[in-house]
Amino acid sequence: MASPSFDPKHAVVFDLARGATHDASKARLLLVPANALSELVRGSEAQARRLGQAIGKACGTRVAARLGGGDSVRRASIEAVVTELAGELSVTGVGLVSLERWGKALVVAVENTAVDDDVLLAGIVDGAMSAAVGKQVAGVTLVRQGSTARVLIASEATCKRVKELLTGGTAWGDILGRLSTGGGA
Predict the structure, then answer these.
(1) CATH class for the domain made up of 33-180
(2) Nearest Cα to 24, choosing from 50, 52, 54, 63?
(3) Where do the structural domains in the chain lie, given as residue ranges?
């Protein structure tokens, strides 16, 4: 059985004659410097989350369309879905995405991310995942180590509790340990 692979053909189309950039569905795209996004959302977690989710939703919607819709995505292998999401987020410039399982906890690792705002990054990841699978999930950035950021994907309530624990000084590994044993955050 062949491994799933992302086909970037037409993922981003540059129409120089018309001065336009668009995706495979012909939705217009605007290339924006990453630091401009960070400046835009600085000081407003609500704005960062909304903007991140809008970016992520666009990526997840394209993944769902390519895989045949929400039901087909939910029936697809986790490898196929992650491959498509990683490809979409990569061509969007977010970074190199991989999935990590920490017991029962689902963590998205983003290497070489262009996004330096943790809430914006978590919004992009949870927006992409929600749109792809057709089910609302939430995200919280757990840690940045070197060039890699890790975003927990869970329920809104779990992410809120995890954020409180992180703010209170609990190590992210300890939090994942609690989640993986079913003890909750």
Answers:
(1) alpha beta
(2) 63
(3) 33-180
